[in-house]
Write a structure and sequence with these properties.
Elements: E1 2-6, H1 16-29, H2 43-53, H3 59-76, E2 83-89, H4 95-106, E3 110-117, H5 120-134, E4 140-145, H6 148-156, E5 163-167, H7 177-190, E6 196-202, H8 207-213, H9 217-234, E7 243-250, E8 255-262, E9 266-270, E10 275-279, E11 284-291, H10 295-304, E12 307-314, E13 320-327
Parallel strand pairs: 1-4, 2-3, 2-5, 3-4, 5-6
Antiparallel strand pairs: 6-13, 7-8, 8-11, 9-10, 12-13
Helix pairs in contact: 2-9, 3-4
Length: about 325
Amino acid sequence: MFETKVLHTEPASFSHEEQFANTVHKGLSFDKKRLPSWLIFDNAGSEIFKEITELTEYLPAACEFEIIRNYKNNIAELITGDIFNLIELGSGDGCKTRILIEHLLDRKFSFHYFPIDISSGAVKNLARSLEIDHQDTSLKVTGLIGDYFEGLNTIVQGSPKPNLVLFLGVTLNNMDPAAARIFLENLSKSLGPKDYLLIGFDLMKSPKLLYSAYNHPLFEKFNLHLLDRINQVLGADFNKKYFVQEGQYNPITRAVESYLYSTRNQTVHINALNKDYHFKTWEALQTEQSFKYTLEEIENLAFENGFKVVEHLFDSQKYFVDSIWKVAE
């Protein structure tokens, strides 16, 4: 079985477009303008980010590929039965998870893979690709398009199967500390005592390495795509020619922060909001943040939000860690 489903939240107070519009208005109204990076991720934004993950300078992806290749057996050993759910939050194209899927199939595990992502194109392409490669195996795939927790709760509720939940990459690192804690607390409440969570953290490293990783031309293309999105969704008149991107490490927040800088005095009109937003010459608009963690901070995050750490899996240079957690009993 290979299928995709669109998740529909029961009547939400805001549609996706209303949430998008409200988020843009709020962010552009701050004295120090800032917008969250999730606004960038339509199908085209996801494709640009996939290109970023293939860069040698972008260490999180390369390090996590190494971890999964080297520790796929350790991850498989977490599973005590032969029937379970493999759930991936923010699956994208699933390229790292496919290594694990093939290993589990080689070991004759019977499992149902649920990739969950807001990008319909990514989920549909992943399900289609897995069907082509594994149609003669026991693999079952149900791709879910929509909110992580709606998808997770749909799978977990009423199912006796144990769950191995993957939250790979740096998605959690892109949340500010308060949002990360809320996310993890909700996640611990959604899982049971038989379930495992494999979660990725980019570790603190030389700021010089961080600078080179976040200032490749593809990062500028990715951040400028935010302006395309606002133009497309809200009928704005941003001109990308009048903005440049730079990423920098902030030692106070312990995050790499990406900014779009206005190269001139300009006023942008957003039709859907019927509002003008003024940018001074070299005024900054923050578009991304990626927090870097120490092991102590990771273990504190687990403990404070209802988890216990089972094991840390590192790449050879200890630039990244995939941490295995269980719900604390």
